[in-house]
Every structure is written in structure tokens, then in C-alpha cells.
Amino acid sequence: MKLACSERLAQGGSFGERIAYLQRFGFEGIEARVPVAEATPQRLDEITHTLAGSPLKVSLLICPGEGFTIPVDTAERRAVKWAHAKRALEIGARLGGVVDILPEYQAQTPLPLSDRSKSLPPAERDLLLGFLQDVADYAERLSVTVGLEAINRYETHYFHRLEEVMTIIDQVGSSHLKIIADFFHMQIEERDIATSIENAAGYIGYVQLGDSNRELPGQGHTDFRPGFAALKRIGYDGYLALECRVPRDPEREFSECIHFVRHCWQSA
């Protein structure tokens, strides 16, 4: 089991300080956040220099910005998203890790209170598939892995369950597209997390951990053991990454969480 942690949960003013902080707790990976607007040569040099002297690796690359959050619902927005994704993939080729590409990440209006989003209109589905085909082709050219995350119905109107991401990946037909399986989103959308994980064998490229309340594992009511057992059965050997709220008492809560996750993994 390899543990990673979101950069947002780490303390420190510089990237080097945050790396050193996570290293203290035994993390092996970091979900690096590099906004495209801030990805200057100097900034990337700082990150690569810091990583060269650390055992931590970039497990996931997130490049926030408008092109990361807006939907692919018009030709104009697709162009904005493609320019953003193209730069994110180039940064990923330099820093390593799975590159997180989201067709949309924002609160839904109106908020779906009981039903999930309806099927996409054909024109919007064509825009989505065209965008992801461009992403996959460029990722293959750069030898980069792209992560597509199944996100709950309140934060996207695209794909919510692992099987829906599998369908998209099959339609695009690229081995450079993988699923990001996030336990927080799965406990909202999946009928059976373990079964969904087993059905997605060969597609899952990254796993994120957040409890039912989006806090650290062990601070909600999610039972991680069935999902962990399914990950073992499919031979998953990638990162388990903390992607949740910032702890109130990091020194204590990180140690408790890491102990909890390792216990769940060992007993799964």
C-alpha cells in the first residue's frame, strides 16, 4: 500500500516545506496542485528540484483554473478546456503522476435533489467525446496517464459512477485514460463499492480516500474494508491518496488516520 496526500492538507509556505511535512508522516506521494496560470519555468524548476531530493513522488497532478471547472457544453468552452488540458498534460509530462482532467467540476444548478442528471444531449456528448479524444491523443504523444474521476451528481452532470467512466474510456479507445475512484463520491453514487471496483478491474489508475463527510478516513461512517478487499482482488498496486478536508488538529489526526487506513487495508 502506497499512501499519498493532497498538497492542500500539508502545512508549509513553500512546496519544499509541504513535501518535508508530508514526509514526516511517511507519505510516499503528493497530489500536487499547479494552477496553469502559475506554471512558470521558475515554478516548475522549484518543484522538480524539490522532488529530486525527496523520496516523495507526484502521485496526481491537479491544475486548477477556469478550464478545469467549466463544462464542455459549447464549442467555445471546449476550446478553453482544450487549451487548459493541453498545458496540464505538458506539466504532467515534466512532473510525473496521473493528470487529473475533469469535463466539469462545479456546483450543479438546479441542485439535483433526488434524481441524477439525465442523459447528455447528443451534441454535448459529441463535444465531450471529441475533447477527451484530443486529450487522449496528446497524452499518448507525451506518455502521460490521464485520470477521469467519477464525481457525485451535485458537482457534475457528466459521469457519476465507475461504469459510466468505463463506457467513456471504451468509446474513446485509449489506454492512456484511467479511472480515478474516489471513496467519497462512490459512497454517494455506487450501489456496492466493492462490486463496482471489481467490475472496473483494469480501468482504475488511481484511488482517493475521503470519508462519508469528506473528512479524513475514520472520521465518518464509511466502511473502507470491502472496497480495499476489492482493490486487492483486482491487483491494484497504486496510491491511496487522502483527498478530503484539512484536519483540525493535523499532528494528531494525520497519525490516527494513517493508522486507521493501514489497519483497514491489512484487515480487508
Task: Walk me through the topology.
Layout: E1 2-6, H1 15-24, E2 29-33, H2 41-52, E3 57-62, H3 66-69, H4 75-95, E4 98-100, H5 122-142, E5 146-149, H6 162-172, E6 177-182, H7 183-189, H8 193-199, E7 204-209, H9 225-233, E8 239-242, H10 250-267
Parallel strand pairs: 1-2, 1-8, 2-3, 3-4, 4-5, 5-6, 6-7, 7-8
Helix pairs in contact: 4-5, 8-9
DSSP helix fraction: 40-55%
* Low-confidence residue ranges: none
Extended strand count: 8
CA(first)-CA(last) distance? 12 Å
Could you describe the 3D structure shown?
Helix 4 (75-95) packs parallel to helix 5 and helix 8 runs parallel beside helix 9 (225-233). The chain has helices spanning 15-24, 41-52, 66-69, 75-95, 122-142, 162-172, 183-189, 193-199, 225-233, 250-267, and strands spanning 2-6, 29-33, 57-62, 98-100, 146-149, 177-182, 204-209, 239-242. The chain has 268 residues and is α/β, with parallel strands linked by helices. It has an eight-stranded parallel beta barrel, surrounded by four helices. It has a single domain (2-182, 198-209), classed as Divalent-metal-dependent TIM barrel enzymes (TIM Barrel). The chain has ten helices and eight strands. The protein is globular, with a radius of gyration of 18 Å. Strand 5, helix 6 and strand 6 (177-182) form a beta-alpha-beta unit.
